[in-house]
Write a structure and sequence with these properties.
mainly alpha; 3 strands
Length: 150
């Protein structure tokens, strides 16, 4: 069964490599496009929510946001509900590139799922959702510093 996770890892690395190369001209490397896409899809999201959405630690999110902000892709604004929280919004530059990023994501999905029936796509999505639900409790524990017992 290790082969399943290895294949998922290979797919993930393929997509990340393709995206990092294709987005290099835009100065969007090291997965930063993922953050920019999610911020465009969820304007006003706070960093903690973004970290949870992407299953990435808060420190990595903070570094990526800082770089996106310094490159003019996103901006932080004070929350009207909680002055301690900063909401994330795409800038005009960030909004302008979103359609390009979305087209790339749609194209990659189309290529990866070529020759899959709609039923197969739904089954695959359901299985991946179940896998995420299964691993989520371990992810929560490990990110809090608790070692798994295996």
């Amino acid at each position: 069964m290790q082969q399943i996770l290895r294949k998922i890892g290979q797919l993930s690395r393929c997509f990340e490599t393709i995206s990092n190369i294709e987005f290099k001209d835009y100065n969007l490397g090291r997965g930063q496009y993922l953050y920019l896409v999610r911020i465009n899809e969820n304007p006003g999201i706070i960093q903690g929510q973004l970290a949870e959405l992407l299953n990435i630690d808060r420190t990595s999110v903070a570094k990526a946001i800082k770089k996106l902000e310094s490159n003019g892709w996103v901006e932080k604004r004070e929350s009207s509900l909680n002055k301690k929280e900063l909401q994330l919004f795409p800038t005009e530059k960030g909004k302008d590139i979103y359609s390009f990023l979305k087209r790339e994501g749609d194209y990659s999905s189309e290529v990866a799922l070529r020759d899959f029936s709609e039923e197969e796509k739904q089954i695959l999505l359901s299985m991946l959702d179940r896998m995420k639900q299964n691993i989520e409790p371990d992810w929560q524990l490990v990110k809090c510093g608790i070692k798994r017992d295996y």
